[in-house]
């Protein structure tokens, strides 16, 4: 029976109310990760102040060996939030690969969180046990702030890898989807972390961990390097789900098992439903198709660009029979993309990593570091032997060790930046992170369990050590002129890092408090960073004279001149009229404004 008009009106009003209710929910309830944001407390002296980096000159390493003359590596001791804040000035958009191994938040791994609300009750922060109601909220609040800063550091083609265990893997993936974008997710890799899993559980023997991978911009990632392939197999280009396509191969580019002669165009019978059509007549001589080969079939190679790329990469195209089915063969120098489950023979496990570290120190200094082979594999995913690599949960320093090994293997120029807190009475950063890599670079004596000593030669190279610090007597929002002057003076390390000129040039004692000069470690065509940071310009002429002195040593050197001035940088240009290869930059406002923004 048809509804009455009044009945229909009532249904319409009810449906309208239902639609409005759903609209309201769509606006307020979104799919994704939600948690109670817990404000993090920092030391009272550092909260809301301007962070800077200060070099610890006595810890610099300059070792002879195969890696001498390579770009210098950097270790930063301090809270990684403050270090990332500094790097957001010096390395924004410059990092190619980030690898981190954050606390897994297992409830027994010692993860500590300084809750701003309860700092009076827990002045040193509190360890977060498994049953804590805010356990996941603490961890997510901690990670979110750091990953947002890390994202800014990635280059357009940059990628980030995050090691994680079962406890937070799902949460971390949702958090990364929010920060980096779900479309920039590359993969959740699995690696066999122990070949001898714990047998204490009656339910499961856990022997694997995860490595999440995200791109800054997925569309700009052409491919991952993966591993070299030695396969001799020849897969067919036929794929039933693909539409019929016409593909062509240049004359002389296709190998064949056919006898010499001319082969006429037409549909070829291969005994299967998916037949290929030879579009043109072709001539074969001595195992090569001399003519251009044009085929029509269900192929997943669709474009001329794809075929050109494959041929340029060394891929061989084969026709085995008169069915004219095309096959391809990767040569021994071609590459396979990394699979989701990483090959255990390549990445190794914790047993290997513990032995590797103990071999360097002759004692146990750090439990279960990541294997250097695993991190080498990750750092080399993108085929870039000059990559800048960052690890801001550095732990025992495996990432730098892996970078040194990679540079030795392929004569690369990768540069590594590590960040690690002091942590505890033993100061992990100084006594493990730094000391491990100092020994690898300078050489060390390995002592076996039986007491046998073996001398291990160093790889060479250079290393700079910095600590996070803070400038000024006031919070950033209330910084006065004195704070700004102090910032300008202490900004030298930051500006030198930004320009990748980390060698301090000795200047006259009279220059102290007025100017600083840094250079890179190139033998010729050096790059210099020159900073005049005092509001008193009475020593500018001495500053210019020193630059001219350095320029006379190698006239092809380049000079970046930063001037602390409220005036335009043009104000100083006349001071350098007679000198070439000089670019003048102003420093006070950019640094101060960036730090104000980063610290809210």
Give a structural overview.
- The chain is an alpha/beta fold.
- The protein has three domains: 71-226 and 370-424, Rossmann fold (3-Layer(aba) Sandwich), CATH 3.40.50; 229-336, no CATH class; 474-598, Dna-directed Rna Polymerases I, Ii, And Iii 27 Kd Polypeptide, Chain: A, domain 1, CATH 3.40.1340.
- The chain contains 14 helices and 31 strands.
- Strands 1, 2, 3, 4, 7, 8, 9, 22, 23 and 26 form a ten-stranded mixed beta sheet that branches. The protein has a six-stranded mixed beta sheet with strand order 13-16-17-12-19-20, with no helix packed on it.
- The longest helix has 24 residues, at 5-28.
- The model is unreliable at 228-232 (pLDDT under 50).
Please give a handful of descriptors for the protein shown.
alpha/beta, Rossmann fold, 3 domains, 6-stranded mixed beta sheet
